[in-house]
Write a structure and sequence with these properties.
mainly alpha, Rna Polymerase Sigma Factor, Chain: A, single chain, Arc Repressor Mutant, subunit A, 2 domains
């Protein structure tokens, strides 16, 4: 990765005006990584996607037409991911995002409540992973990343109405899956 980092630095110095890329794009790298992790399903692939996306972003920084670098970078991350893997094989081979328990600071109420919370978080993540990629992607961009419908439409390259429709259907499916899982969760307690 350090070889690619040096290459990225060289590309950056050769094509970027001083401070422009750093001020507009770099503040969004953590969010881009989070989005890439939701797309890829694991940290290692997400790092590779974000690294490639950053190289592309540096190379094509001049194509940024407005100050909305976050949506622009997310679109590059998405396109990078889609160019790396085929959509269908990735949807079939999806793996859970994180098998490790969700550890919180010691300010938690008690171990039992923490265990129930961890199970709930893991369960919601697992349910999100079961959604079709089109639905999962819009719900992550809207509910986790807080992007507007317009920004999501630009990233996913569909009309705003399609974004709203996918988001509504994703929420409905997720709610149905959660409702179906409640009796199971109560049996576990």
């Amino acid at each position: 990765m350090s070889g690619n980092k040096n290459r990225a630095a060289e590309v950056y110095r050769s094509v970027m005006p001083p401070r422009g890329f750093e001020e507009l794009v770099l503040p969004h790298l953590n969010a881009a990584f989070n989005y890439a992790r939701w797309l890829t399903g694991n940290d290692a692939d997400a790092e590779d996607v974000v690294q490639d996306a950053c190289l592309r972003a540096m190379r094509y920084f001049a194509s940024l037409r407005d100050d909305d670098a976050r949506a622009w970078l997310f679109a590059i991350v998405r396109n990078t991911w889609y160019s790396r893997v085929s959509h269908r094989s990735r949807a079939r081979d999806a793996t859970p995002l994180d098998d490790a328990p969700d550890e919180r600071p010691d300010t938690r109420p008690d171990p039992e409540a923490l265990l129930l919370q961890q199970r709930s978080v893991a369960h919601v993540r697992a349910l999100l992973e079961q959604l079709p990629t089109d639905f999962r992607e819009v719900i992550v961009l809207r509910e986790i990343e807080g992007l507007s419908y317009k920004e999501i439409a630009a990233i996913v390259r569909v009309p705003i109405g399609t974004v709203m429709s996918r988001l509504a259907r994703a929420r409905d499916r997720l709610a149905t899956m959660l409702t179906a899982a409640v009796p199971l969760m109560e049996r576990v307690r």
